[in-house]
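Deliverable D5.2: sample structural annotation.
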Amino acid sequence: MRIILFLLVFIILNARENPFVPVITNENKNLIQQDTLKETKVLLPSDARILKSVTFTYQTLTGSILNKTIIINKAINWHSPIFISQQKIKNDVKKVKVGFLYFYIDKYKVLISSKDKMIRHFVLVEPFRVIFDFKANKRFLTYKKDVNSFIKKVVIGNHNDFYRVVLYTDGVYKPIIKKVAKGYLIDFK
């Protein structure tokens, strides 16, 4: 009886106040918000003669740690450092008209110019695309347009009491949507 009473008291003392709060917290937010890579250099040991491959270990949007190996197989001079740099791509603001909507694409942000109310948004994969539904009673045929940026294609389709905007992207992103005066600003992280 004492053992059962002891176990019961032990379990109650170790119980959390709110069991729905996750035990693991994301206290390392700076892992995601680190400085952007500009340039780094690597000096190889004195016995290095052929660079066989380079492996990059990176963290994804979901927090997973993955590796990507690139086969090089070239002769090197170990006296000279190997530089790894990331250059910025020069992007100008693109104004794209698809049907009755204007899209302004700047770097990794998209402004959908619409006075209609957004009723929902969600993401689908394979291929990765972001879907926005806007409340409106409009009748039109489906509009499609290919875009030469990180947004690969825009499709606008008609439904009973709303229309749907689909943005196909060149990769996986985490869209952050903000209502602005001219419409909706989507920041693709």
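Annotation notes: The two ends are 58 Å apart (CA to CA). The chain has two domains: 38-85, 94-188.
The annotation will be released with the project's public dataset once the embargo ends.
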